[in-house]
Write a structure and sequence with these properties.
340 residues; alpha+beta; Fructose-1,6-Bisphosphatase, Chain A, domain 1; D-Maltodextrin-Binding Protein, domain 2; 2 domains; eight-stranded mixed sheet; five-stranded mixed sheet; 17 strands; binds 1,6-di-O-phosphono-beta-D-fructofuranose; binds magnesium ion; metal-binding; FBPase_C_dom; cytoplasm
Length: 340
């Protein structure tokens, strides 16, 4: 049995001295996030018996009604991370602007404190998604502009999944992954309170028969996306020549976790419902961190045409269409969009 602490110790031992301080800073930040993840797990276990269900009575910067647990999870992460000496500042899906932390900190942390908010009150899977970037203006108080870095600049990213068990998945950037472990999965042992290693080097098959999309929006999708899904629905009678199955957790963290476990494609496409929104999901708190995990596991992540991690962000709350998972399916979506 390898605990998260054991794993981090061996990771640091395998690390050359030139990058060891950056690596130990990243590890320290992940440890802070996982400590908060355990607190959120406890709250969710109490469920209706804790005061975590229902609306908080406020709207966030995204124009969405906040749930009580959105606010609680956000505050827990904010408090813990701003107290971490390596953290120069945080940006959260729930907060209008970046929050400065420690001026000597070398890292920026971005998070979706509670992903899948509509699942909270019905005891279904939720999660916390995080992304860690370098603070390139070290010594200066952070501004929103410091966070506007491409997904390819991420030093590490991951999520906590609060499902029937609590799990942690993360990956370092290629440059920081001295053990070549790729995407790593841990499970929280409820008896010891420790995360224990389940799997390293998670790999996503290039092909799949399983897709995730909220089909209630079908009439608003662009024609190539409608064509793609219609071809999947036609099964053995259509051009794809095989039957596909649908799964939709309504929490991206759950859908991405399923893809890491058994493959598939996840889509939250561009639609014409609200022309002011390019997509539903947030580039900095959802799309970029999940893209790093998916690509490091051998999958692909695009907006239907372009790679997500190549986006030059213009706003910390920017939204993007997302098509990620099994490489050959993502390519098929790209092909249909390029032909249109
Ligand atoms: O309710 P819909 O439209 O199916 O959207 C579900 C999607 O919205 C999200 O819940 C957005 O996340 P938040 O709960 O953090 O706002 C994704 O996790 C999920 O994939
Ligand atoms: Mg979310
Ligand atoms: Mg959220």
């Amino acid at each position: 049995m390898t605990t998260l602490n054991d794993y981090f110790q061996s990771y640091l031992t395998a690390t050359s001295s030139d990058s060891s301080s950056e690596k130990s800073a990243v590890i320290d930040v992940i440890n802070t996030i996982t400590t908060v993840g355990k607190e959120i797990t406890e709250l969710l276990r109490k469920g209706a018996l804790a005061d975590i269900h229902g609306e908080a009575g406020a709207e966030n910067v995204q124009g969405e009604q906040q749930k009580k647990l959105d606010v609680i999870a956000n505050d827990l992460l904010l408090d813990a991370l701003t107290a971490n000496k390596h953290c120069a500042g945080v940006a959260s899906e729930e907060l209008d602007d970046a929050t400065p932390a420690n001026e000597s900190g070398e890292l920026l942390v971005l998070f979706d404190p509670l992903d899948g908010s509509s699942n909270i009150d019905i005891n279904m899977p939720t999660g916390t998604i995080f992304s860690i970037l370098p603070h390139n203006n070290k010594g200066q108080a952070v501004t929103n502009a410091d966070f506007l870095q491409k997904g390819t600049e991420q030093l590490a990213a991951g999520y906590l999944l609060y499902g029937s068990s609590a799990m942690l998945a993360f990956t370092f950037s290629d440059a920081l992954d001295s053990n070549n472990d790729g995407v790593i999965l841990f499970s929280l042992n409820p008896t010891t309170g420790e995360f224990e290693l389940v799997k390293k080097n998670i790999s996503i098959d290039a092909d799949t028969k399983e897709y995730a999309i909220n089909a209630s929006n079908a009439r608003h999708w662009l024609p190539p996306m409608q064509q793609y899904i219609n071809e999947l629905l036609a099964g053995t009678t259509g051009p794809r020549g095989k039957n596909f199955n649908t799964r939709w957790v309504a929490a991206m963290v759950g859908d991405v976790h399923r893809i890491l476990c058994r493959g598939g494609i996840f889509i939250y496409p561009k639609d014409t419902k609200d022309p002011s929104k390019a997509g539903k999901l947030r580039l900095m708190y959802e799309a970029n961190p999940m893209s790093l995990l998916i690509e490091r596991a051998g999958g692909a992540s695009t907006d239907a045409i372009n790679r997500i991690m190549d986006y030059e962000p213009t706003d910390i709350h920017q939204r993007v269409p997302v098509v990620l998972g099994a490489k050959n399916e993502v390519e098929q979506v790209q092909k249909l969009h390029q032909q249109a």
